[in-house]
Structures are given as structure tokens and as C-alpha cells.
TrEMBL record:
Organism: Caryophanon latum
The protein, known as: NADH-dependent FMN reductase
Any one GO molecular-function label of the UniProt entry: oxidoreductase activity
All copies of domain NADPH-dependent FMN reductase-like, residue ranges: 1-142
Pfam families found in the cross-reference section: FMN_red
Keywords: Flavoprotein, FMN, Oxidoreductase
Length: 183
């Protein structure tokens, strides 16, 4: 099973650190998964404006289409998700993520911005009909030290729990696929 861990920003390091922690946790629960981090900071982004897509955007779309499940990591800027993440969602075909497991982590400068997950990310993933885990993890600046290492034990525990639940969703989605084939 291919798991795509999406670092949905071109700025900063905190979302990448959170994804790396989740990657380790998922591997602990199921070492057979193919885990890949897709860092938006390494792609040449283009605005979806009707012009032909560049190679990086074609690659990004292909990664979304080929993945069996997703972990989305987003910073919160100005009480919203980054434009590159929204632009990526606009490029993905509507059925590409259908009935595939997804989990969400977000990071912001204040504790109040956790609602961005509820108000923006969950509705977008619902549109794609992903199987969104009921738990998400929101971090803020105080959860990291100056080297961007997670120092909050509760956050580390919640990231582990998110990985555990996500792995169960992945296994459940396999059974859904099997049931569809048998029917």
C-alpha cells in the first residue's frame, strides 16, 4: 500500500518534522507500507489557469492518483491553508482520492487556528470522498524547540495515536476494495 505524506507548503520546516514523526509511527504499526513524503517545497508550482501543466505538476497529480492513502500536513497562514495546497487540490481529478484513507495534521502560530482543519481541510477532503480519520493533530509554535524538534509529549502521543488509527483505516479500505471486487 502506497501512503503519500503531503507537506503542503513551500515555507518552513515544522510540517515536514510532523510528517517525519508520523512516517516513523506508521512504519512501527505496519512496516510493509510504502511511505513517501511529497514536499511541495521541492516542486515548481504553477497556478491552475488552463495552460499546459509543467512536469512537476504532472508528477504531483500522478503521485496523488497512484497513492492508496494520504496524510496531509498544512501550516495555517492568515487563518487559511496555503495557496499551493488549495491549488494542488484544484488540479487533482475528483475521483483520484475517492474512498482512500486520509489523515490531517496542521501547524499554526496560535492555538485558535485549529479550526482551519474543521472549516477548510475536512470539507475539501469530504468533497473528494476520502475516508478521513476522526482524529487530527494541530500543533503550534510552543510545541517545537528552536531546532524545530517536537518537544511536547502530548503532541508526540497524539501523533502516534493518529498513525495507529490511520493504519486501521488503511486496513479497512483494503477490505472495502475486496468486498467491491467480490460483489
Amino acid at each position: 500500500m502506497k501512503i503519500l505524506l503531503v507537506d503542503g507548503t513551500i515555507f518552513g520546516r515544522k510540517t515536514g518534522v510532523v510528517l517525519e514523526t508520523i512516517q516513523q509511527n506508521i512504519a512501527k504499526y505496519n512496516a510493509e507500507y510504502d511511505l513517501e513524503i511529497l514536499s511541495f517545497s521541492k516542486l515548481q508550482h504553477q497556478i491552475l489557469d488552463g495552460s499546459p501543466l509543467n512536469d512537476d505538476m504532472k508528477y504531483m497529480i500522478q503521485q496523488f492518483e497512484e497513492a492508496d492513502a494520504y496524510i496531509f500536513a498544512s501550516p495555517v497562514f492568515q487563518a487559511s491553508i496555503p495557496g499551493v495546497l488549495k491549488n494542488a487540490f484544484d488540479m487533482i481529478p475528483p475521483k483520484a482520492m475517492r474512498y482512500k484513507p486520509a489523515a490531517i495534521v496542521a501547524n499554526g502560530g496560535t492555538t485558535q487556528h485549529h479550526l482551519v482543519v474543521e472549516q477548510q481541510l475536512k470539507p475539501i477532503l469530504d468533497y473528494f470522498r476520502t475516508l478521513v480519520t476522526p482524529n487530527y493533530v494541530y500543533t503550534h509554535s510552543a510545541h517545537f524547540n528552536e531546532q524545530n524538534e517536537i518537544i511536547d509529549e502530548d503532541v508526540l502521543s497524539r501523533l502516534d495515536e493518529l498513525a495507529r488509527v490511520f493504519v486501521h483505516y488503511c486496513e479497512m479500505s483494503r477490505n472495502l476494495k475486496l468486498a467491491a471486487v467480490e460483489a
